[in-house]
Every structure is written in structure tokens, then in C-alpha cells.
Specification:
This protein is of the alpha/beta class and 278 residues long. The chain has two domains: 54 residues, no CATH class; 204 residues, TIM Barrel. The strands form four sheets. Strands 2, 3, 4, 8, 9 and 10 form a six-stranded parallel β-sheet that branches. A three-stranded antiparallel β-sheet has the order 1-13-14. Strands 5-6-7 form a three-stranded parallel β-sheet. The relative contact order is 0.20. Bound molecules: zinc ion. The site of zinc ion (ZN) has 5 residues, from loops.
């Protein structure tokens, strides 16, 4: 008999490269102030998901918080995620099913025309939804939809189409979000997702652009944190849950398209799509 020593334990890590925490963000409504957020995020290495109302893009507006131009979307949000926020920002619970479908699909298709990839994420306008809305958008290829609810245990999401976040960026209850992150990160055994959302125009309206730095910069630059968009979280979660480990623990099959990291007796091993013999 061949002398083969199988590992005693193989863990499928929660995030790529065995990172302990995932940090993700999202910003709604697609106004010109998003440019300043993206510029800062690119400098700090943070990722954002930007939920856009396609019908409002390129409108001729004189307001300081005018909407973005269609022509800039693809380049501006490169490396980030563009997601659905409906075409015209209605309260979806007040619409019949057909209008909900129109609002979501029209937005999805218009954004896909701009960015050139399947747009699968969403945030509800004003966070408003109910069970009927969920069931309608479930048929439209939307993978997750963010609400405005705070939920400390929001990921993996029990209902991805009613996905809460850690908090709004200006939430101070019980402490400002950057202090909350400091505590979360500071506890070495803590693992999970830290998710902050907001609107870039809130910095402008509150005359407090300093807050962009105070709130978000402290989240950046941590070697054991995975900085990801909303959809990247869901895609990785799907990939890791599909991983097949042989009963004898000598091989692993990854049927997905993303590399998944496993921990083999304390050693991190990347499993590319396909078969990996350990
Ligand atoms: Zn909105």
C-alpha cells in the first residue's frame, strides 16, 4: 500500500488568501461627488459599489449635486462595481409588478450598455422594499439588493435581496463607524464583513468633506483585510461553498471560475478552478 499522509483538517477560508475581514462600501444615486470618493478610494485601495439611476445620468442640471455623465461611467468606476438603483428612483412598494420589472431591467440594461459587463447588484431606492418586491426582482437576475437596515450579522446574507449593512457612514450609534471598525479589527479573533454605505452628496451638503478621510481612510491599508465590491463578496461566497473536498482529503475540486483559498493544517493553499491534488 502506498504511504500517503492526508492532512488532518482542510478549512475553506471565508475570504480570498485567508484574509480575516472583508471591507466593502456602497454609494447611491450617482452624483458628481462620486468622483471625489472614487479618487480617494483609488488612492487608499478601497473598493466601492455605486448604485446608479440610469435615467438621471447626463441630465442638464445646475445643482452642485448634479448626476454623472453617461460617458464617464465606465472609466470612472473601473475597478469598482456599478449596480442597479432603478431607472428613476421610485418607491418600489408603490408600483405594480410590471413597473417594478421595467424600473429594474431598464436600469440594468442601460448600465450594462455603459460598463460592458453583467450588472447583478442592486440597492433599493430609499431602502424601501417588501416581500412582493423581492419576489419580482428575484426573477431578474439580481444577486443581492441592499436595504437601509443595520445588521451586525449581515453576511452571509439569509436573504440576499434584503441585505442589510453594518451601518450608514454617518451613523454614530453607539459610536462613529471608524471607531466601530477599530474595535472590530482590533480583536484578533474577529472575522466577518464590515460594510458602510452612504451618498457622496452627504459630504457636500453637510459641508464636511473631511469626513471622507476620517471615516474611510482608517479602513484602508490592512494586510489581513480584503477590500472588495459588494458583488465580489457574493461571488466568492458562492465559489467557496461549491468547493468539493475529497473524503480522503487528498484532492480538492473547484468547479467555479474563481480561485478559492483553503487552509490545510495551518498552511494557506490557493485552489484554482479545476482539480487540485494536495
Ligand atoms: Zn437613492
Amino acid at each position: 500500500m502506498k504511504d500517503i499522509k492526508a492532512p488532518s483538517r482542510i478549512e475553506i477560508t471565508q475570504f480570498p488568501k485567508g484574509k480575516r475581514i472583508a471591507v466593502t462600501t456602497s454609494f447611491d444615486d450617482g452624483v458628481t461627488h462620486d468622483r471625489r470618493v472614487v479618487e480617494a478610494f483609488n488612492k487608499w485601495g478601497l473598493k466601492g459599489t455605486f448604485n446608479l439611476n440610469s435615467s438621471f445620468l447626463s441630465r442638464k442640471e445646475k445643482r452642485s449635486d448634479a448626476h454623472l455623465e453617461t460617458t464617464e461611467i465606465s472609466k470612472l468606476f473601473e475597478g469598482h462595481e456599478v449596480a442597479v438603483h432603478t431607472a428613476t428612483h421610485p418607491l418600489l412598494t408603490r408600483l405594480d409588478n410590471l413597473q417594478i420589472i421595467d424600473e429594474v431591467l431598464n436600469d440594468r440594461k442601460a448600465l450594462e450598455d455603459l460598463v460592458g459587463y453583467p450588472v447583478r447588484g442592486m440597492a433599493y431606492p430609499c431602502g424601501v422594499y417588501d416581500q412582493r418586491v423581492i419576489e419580482v426582482i428575484r426573477t431578474l437576475g439580481i444577486v443581492y439588493s441592499r436595504t437601509c437596515e443595520n445588521d451586525p450579522r449581515h453576511f452571509p446574507a439569509k436573504e440576499p435581496l434584503a441585505w442589510g449593512s453594518t451601518a450608514h457612514m454617518f451613523n454614530n450609534d453607539p459610536v462613529p463607524v471608524n471607531e466601530r471598525f477599530e474595535k472590530f479589527y482590533g480583536q484578533e479573533w474577529m472575522t466577518g464583513v464590515f460594510y458602510i454605505w452612504g451618498h457622496s452628496y452627504e459630504f457636500d451638503r453637510s459641508n464636511n468633506w473631511k469626513a471622507l478621510e476620517t471615516i474611510f481612510k482608517p479602513l484602508s491599508g490592512k494586510p489581513d483585510v480584503w477590500y472588495c465590491t459588494n458583488i465580489e463578496l457574493f461571488d466568492y461566497e458562492k465559489a467557496r461553498t461549491q468547493l468539493v473536498i475529497a473524503a480522503n482529503k487528498l484532492s480538492v475540486y473547484n468547479p467555479g471560475s474563481l480561485t478559492v483559498t483553503i487552509n490545510v493544517d495551518g498552511k494557506l493553499v490557493d485552489v484554482k478552478p479545476g482539480l487540485k491534488v494536495l
